[in-house]
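Friendly challenge for the regulars: who can give me the structure tokens for this chain first? No prize, just bragging rights.
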Amino acid sequence: MIELTFVLYMMNMGLAVFVSGCYGSFMIRNTGKFEIHSTIAACLHVILSVMAISSWFQLASNVSRFELIGGLVLGVFLFIVGQIVLFIFLYEQKERWMKIYDNQFTEAGHSTSS
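First reply, four minutes later:
Bragging rights claimed.
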């Protein structure tokens, strides 16, 4: 049972990165505001990760302390790696998404120069 819990825990942490990345990419492409939406995506990742870690404590409270702490260390590690991957993904795609936003803005008949 604990193996299934570990697998679901890791999948939930991966899902947090995926959902945050999808939010960031969608909103940056549609609004052109990188800083705001990358920060919101990071906050969304934090919230989803905390939910995953909290659920780990609830599900693993009946097992040994070693597995409980091991899951916490795994969660913190996946959280840090997830934040790094999220910021690298958002930053690497920034120019492409800004060009998409500028093209959509120009096609709508607006001028980007003020």
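The chain has a mean pLDDT of 87. The chain has three helices and no strands. Your move, everyone else.
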